[in-house]
Amino acid sequence: MKTTLKITLAILLLIGFSSTGIAQKNKPNQKTNNKAKNKAAPVHKTSPVNRSKVQYKSAPKKVVTVRNIPNNAVKVKHNGQTIFYTNNKFYRQNAGRYIPAIPAKGFRIKTLPVGYTVIVHNNRNFYYQNGIYFIQSNKEYEVINPELGTIVSQLPADSEKVVIDGFTYFEYNNVLYEKIQMNGTRAYEVIGFIEN
């Protein structure tokens, strides 16, 4: 029995070494480049990025409209545009239908959307919900542009992956985000804006 075990072990070792040698012999010569690429690290973009430099990585999304919104929708006029707010969503009316809308900077509502998150950045409280940033202004909440360096834990489902100067970012409502790790969890940092 010991002899059979020794012979079997010897055969297995012989097969193992010979197959490794054959695999290495058939492997083409490859150079591995462990040098870091000379690509500048992305930086916060203090001036807006020209839209022509932005490459969207997904096909244009189809705009989904609705025929009716609830009767209790709040109607707010801002900059000559009427926005309807209901069930944590914003709409504008177009040709008898309602199109999802993102309220512009300066738009005000009396109560924050359900599910908002409080973000503290530069010792100021911001309120964030589904890609929209608010600050408290008197007894209302005003839509603002986020500050560079603001970090959020998630982006809206319809945010888009974009490439600018070879770097991949995410974009929502002309705000650029970089995916980062914060305390072992995925997060997104505001790094710039796309000009309209």
TrEMBL record:
Query: Which regions are flagged for Low complexity bias?
Result: 24-41
The answer, when asked if Transport is one of the entry's keywords, is: no
**Leader sequence residues:** 1-23
Organism encoding this protein: Putridiphycobacter roseus
Q: State the name under which the record lists this protein.
A: Orphan protein
Please tell me whether the keyword 4Fe-4S is annotated for this protein. no
Kindly name one Pfam family recorded for this protein: DUF6515
Q: Where is this region: Disordered?
A: 24-51
Q: Which UniProt keywords apply?
A: Signal
